[in-house]
Amino acid sequence: MSSAPLTRKEQIDQVATSLFKSRGFAATTMRDLALELGIEAGSLYSHIKSKEDILQRVCFKMADEFNAAFNEVKGQNVPAGEKLRLAVAAHVRVLTKNPPAAGVFLNEWRHLSEPSLSKFHDMRYQYEESLRQIVRDGIASGEFKVTDEKFVVLTLLSSLNWLHMWYKPEGKMSPDEIAEFLSNLLLNGLKNF
Amino acid sequence: MSSAPLTRKEQIDQVATSLFKSRGFAATTMRDLALELGIEAGSLYSHIKSKEDILQRVCFKMADEFNAAFNEVKGQNVPAGEKLRLAVAAHVRVLTKNPPAAGVFLNEWRHLSEPSLSKFHDMRYQYEESLRQIVRDGIASGEFKVTDEKFVVLTLLSSLNWLHMWYKPEGKMSPDEIAEFLSNLLLNGLKNF
DNA sequence: TACGTTTACGAACGCCCGTTAGCAAATTTT
DNA sequence: AAAATTTGCTAACGGGCGTTCGTAAACGTA
C-alpha cells in the first residue's frame, strides 16, 4: 500500500489539482500553488510549461481513465440492464479513485483553450454516445420502457457526476456499494428499490 | 407577453448573469460586461456597488424563488411520492424559467465572500433538509423501499441540477413534461418507467 | 427655463497576474 | 572528481484587473 515516489512535476500536478477543484482554475494563482509546495512561483516553471499545461494533463488523464474503464464493459455480452449496471460501477470507480481530479475533469475543462477544448468535447461526446447505445439496446429489447435515450443518459450522468462533491474515502460506503445503490435507484426507482 | 422595461441596473444584472454562466464569474471582467452593454467599464459603477454585488443579487434572488416554489408544496397533505413529484415539478419550473440565473446560482455561488457565503450555505441546507424530510416520510409510510435519505436527496438534486446546462426553451419538451419525465424516472426507475 | 437625477465618459490608481531571465546551489550520473 | 541535470532563488516584465474620481451630457419634471 506504499505510494511510488512522486517526481516534482507529479507533485505539482497533484497539488494544483486539489487547488483547482476547491478554488477553481481561474481563482488559483501560481503563487498560491507555489506557496502550497513551499517554493517560489518562478520555480514552478523549471517543471511545467504553463498553468494550462497542468489543466490539460489532468483533464486528459482522467478522460483516458474513464475510457479505459468503460472499454472493459463495452465488449461484454450481457443484457442492457446489466451492462448499464457495469458501466455505472466503472464510472463510479474512476470518480471515487481520485475525487479532486474528477472534480477538475468535470468542472474546469472549460478553461481549456483550443485545440484542446475541441478534442475534449469530442471525447466526451463519444463517451456519452456509447452510453446512449446501451440504453437504445435496452429499449429495443424491451428491457427499458423509456423512449428518450438522450434524456436518460443526461440524467444518469448528472446523478453520477456530483459524486465527487461529497464522496469521502473514509465514508461508510465503498465505491462498489455506492455504485450498486445508484444502479438500483436508477434502474428500479425509489418505489421499487 | 410583453416584458416590462428593464432599468439599467436590471439590464446589467441580466447581461452579467449570462456572462457569469457561460464564462464563469472569475473569468468575466467588468470590461467584458461593459462591452456587451455598449458602455465603458467605469460607467457600470453608476449603477452597481461592485462585481460581487451582482453575484449576490442573482444568487439570493434565485434562492428566494426556489424557496417560494417549494413552500407551496410543503403544506400540502398528500402521500410522499406525490409530494416528491410536486417538489420536483416546482424545482424544474424555477430551473427552466431562467436558465442563466440558475446556472450562476448552482455553479458560481462559491465566489461569494463572507458573510454571504455562510448565509447561502444555510439556505441550501434548509432546502435540502426539507427534501430529506419528504423522503423520510415516504420511508416511514412504507412507500419508499430505500433506507438512506441523504443519498437519495443528493442523487435527486444532482440529476435535476444539470438541467440548466442543456435546457432550451424552444426545445420539444415543456418544463412540465420534463418534470414528469424526471419524476417517473426517479420514482419508478428505468425498468418500470 | 431651471433643476435635480440618471447615465456615461476617460483617465488613472494600486494591485495582482502568468511568465521570463540569469544565476546558483544541490543532486545525479559518468 | 568532473560533468550534466535537476531544482530553486530573486527580480522584474508587461499587462490586465476591479474600482475611483471628477466631469459632463442627457433627460424628466416643475
What can you see in these coordinates?
Chains A, B: Pfam families: TetR_C_24, TetR_N. The structure is a homodimer of 193-residue chains. The first copy, chain A, is built from nine helices and no strands. The first copy, chain A, is mainly α and 193 residues long. Chain A has a single domain, classed as Tetracycline Repressor, domain 2 (Orthogonal Bundle), CATH 1.10.357. In chain A, helix 1 crosses helix 5, helix 3 packs across helix 5 and helix 4 packs antiparallel against helix 6. The mean pLDDT of chain A is 94. At the A-B interface, helix 7 and helix 9 of A face helix 7 and helix 9 of B. Chain A binds a DNA duplex (30 and 30 nucleotides) through loops.
